[in-house]
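Feature request disguised as a bug report, sorry. It would help if multi-protein outputs had a clear separator. Right now it looks like this:
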Amino acid sequence: MIKRITIIGSGNAATQLGLAWHTANIEVVQILSRNKKSGQNLANKLNSQFIQNPSDLEKVDLIVICVNDDNISEIAKLLPNANIVHTSGNTSINILNNKKSYGVIYPVQSLNKEMEVDFRNIPICIEANSPILEKKLLNLSKQISNNVIVLNSSKRKHLHLAAVIASNFSNYCYSISKNILDNENINFDLLNPLIQYTAQKNLNKNPLNNQTGPAKRGDKNTIKEHLSLLIDKNHKKIYKLLSQNILKEHEH
């Protein structure tokens, strides 16, 4: 049973997971972070001890590494032998294989420490190098989420890829839309119902079957006119590439 946790990092994932566990009455004993300001701030929120030196780590049931993917291996080398997990969607469990007991806790959500998150509805994917740790991670994750699954590193990487396309890329498209409207002094809020409706309908049906718009209809004159309205060359390339793929997908 995991009752005492230490978190490495003080960014978005560290903050939101820490708050979720704290709310679930799981003790976050220490926050280890290079950033003194954000680390101390998070420690204060969680009634934890803030430390900056791995030699000051106390013995706990689980150490959770919440740092950028490129830094996971470097941080892991500094940690004692204990139950250790990282929270990356794209990083293999094997990056921790120099430890005795290790795994992954990956929340499938874009996390921002400034925005309140309800973890009960967020899927959490776990992986462990032993059945014993897997059981512990399942139990821990189920205390904050109603949707916990076991997923190996290969499948998790594909899930992360899909998540990036669905969330990060669509968000960038929103930013392009806002740029177009800002240039014409049109309020971006006018798109809110459309954005919400598009997301909602894709929760229950195949997105391919939900496709609408000029490319789906094969309306090449509208596509040509839209391209003429776009000022930014990169935005033109994105519009053209997506339109070409939609045209091909729907056999126009």
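(second protein starts here, but nothing in the output says so)
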Amino acid sequence: MKNKIIVKSINAITLRFVANSYSIFDDVFPLMVNGFNAYSKENNLDIDLELTFFSEDNNTQGYIDLYATLNLLKKKTNKYDIFAYDPLYLRSFTPYLIELDEWVDKELLDIYSTKEVLNISVFNNHRYGIPIILFYSVLFSNSNYLKKHNKGIPKTWDELIDTAKYILKEEKEKYNNTDLYGYNGFFPNGENSMSTFYQLLYSYRDDIDSPLPDIKSQNAIDALNKIKQIQNEISSELMFRSSETNTITALMTEKILFSFFWSTIKIPNYTITLLPSKNRFLNSTVYGGYNIGINRNIEENRKKASIEVLKYFLSEEVQRDIILKKSVLVSPLKSLYQDDNSEICKTVVKCSAMRNVKCITKPSIEMNNYLDYSNKVVDIIHEFLAGKKEVEETLTDIDDITRIYFFSWNDTFGLVVISILGFIFFLYVISIIFLFIPKFQKYFIFFEKELWLIYSLGSFLILCSIFEYFNKPSINKCTLRHTFINIGNAMIYSPLFYRLLINFPEVSKFIEWVKKIRIALVLFFIIIQILLSFVVDILHTYKIEVVYAQKNYSICGRNNNIGSKIVIIQYLFNIFLYISIGILIFLEWNIEETFNDIRNFTFSIIIDAISILLIIIIKIIDFKDYIMVNFLDIFINILFVLTNQIYIVCIRVLILKYSKKKGIEEKLIDNLLKFNESPSKDIKCISINSKPDIESTFSKTSDYSTLTKKIYKSKILNYHYSQKQSISSYANSEASQSQARTPNSNFI
């Protein structure tokens, strides 16, 4: 249900202030709202403030549930003007709140610019809220038991263990008190376990000004070992996992010596101090609170009125009043704790401790999906407390949640791949040298020298694209990899397409025109890919996407924009060249002048087809392993370079020069294309030059469509079995048929 407190003035702007109901703060917000309305009336501001609570009746997750508020903001509603929200979810609220640094006076912002405040109110260098109240994690120590056994409040974890062990032993042996726990641990289900975990880590930093220890550091190992020792020696897993409600009950019934809890409550017979650390010179606490933010979607006059409310809430007078009336809360205004003779310092809190306290907040602002991270961490910690995981495994699993793994040439596997690439690059250089060795020139007559260089440059670009798989992915790397692969493919396929086109076994004006423009056609295809790649870049087509797995990793994703459609066009363009090459190879299969070359390029084209199939399989199968995904991509590109460059330019030449035996590759092609082994005499061709035959056939079959299909089939087979270039398109089919044979040339 919604609870409302409304105080209205005639002709005033009515601002609506919404907050999630949480019993600790339910009397704080009305105090502030009523105070503002009185202030507004006294100063003729003509602003009325109306408070609405989203209570737990409608909110199954209570005060930590941000969804009710976010749903309102996502609808771009102007129903509410001011929001009180948990700074844990600052990142989620920022799209819907105004940037306060553009609306609030710099003098006020400077007052609220301590590290503690900035850590929970700034995102992307802008202020989207300012905390109006804070609370700390603290240690509750049972003063009755400490006084009874003449013990002091512990300042280190070891002191806490020793003190608790002594008191527990004394209580059991002297008073038969077995219903007492040394420490509550405070690892319930939910977000509070994260607070405990981060406070524990922070308490094991090296010195007072050191940052939070790395998750996989020795400090973190020591911290988890210590909390496990505490559980085993002075508490239990059941107590460590107790809910917030059960913890409060245990405190009220004095069944806990020492307890981690929040400063938002006071318990009789318990003294509140800072939590222990690994040594007496450190202190540590996790803090939370409520930020005030202003709706981005309201009108400007309402924004200005909301700023007046914000200024009132943040004034020194109001902040002092809140602390004096609600002593369990902490003000973000640190100047209130500077004077030890002030009313706050004398009656509410020890100000020297407040001035020296070292706070840490949880890393919610740094993560896209903090709630998911939090849930996973809590589950892992619970498994550790239950004895299902060792400390090193626990910390590694936690680290893996946020760590983005990438393929690096600094690890063993990366070094192996780099070594292979280095060897392939060496072979590539050798292949280029082959093109200029005089005694090998007779093996390179299929292409002109310029085309061989373009072809080889394409292989070089494919080889270069492999290096973009290493180290941390970036948008530039994704774009560069895409550019290298597409232009590289165009440089390899365009010369081959051009050469097969002019090799076509039929004279036509189009073929003669292609022969005249020569290399211009090849350059045209390449320039198309270059221009399209440039457009893909300027449209910011690529983005980095994180794949969440056991070891998270990043991949190149695409934005849903015009650039993505251009990428598809580039792929289709290369597929067009590939299919055209395949068709031309079939039609020119038996031409004597290019007999060996056709078969060698057929081998490389088949391997390319296998590579394309592998790429499709990789996209379909969700491997969830960054090493496997990157390795398969690299392997496919290496295979492409080996078959299209190293084999065609080097291995082919060496085998042709030093071997006269039939190559293995020809056997492969023969197996793949068995239908070509049929004797030419068994092929029945229909001459497209014989009109009487057509009429006769037509009259016999009464099916002109069937006859046409037979004619085209015959013509295609005539091309396929032709041994000479530039035959007449109207050559007698029987003559063509008599020419069709398989040459005795060795294949390589």
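Even a blank line would do. Unrelated, but nice: Confidence is low (pLDDT under 50) at residues 57-64, 661-702, 727-748.
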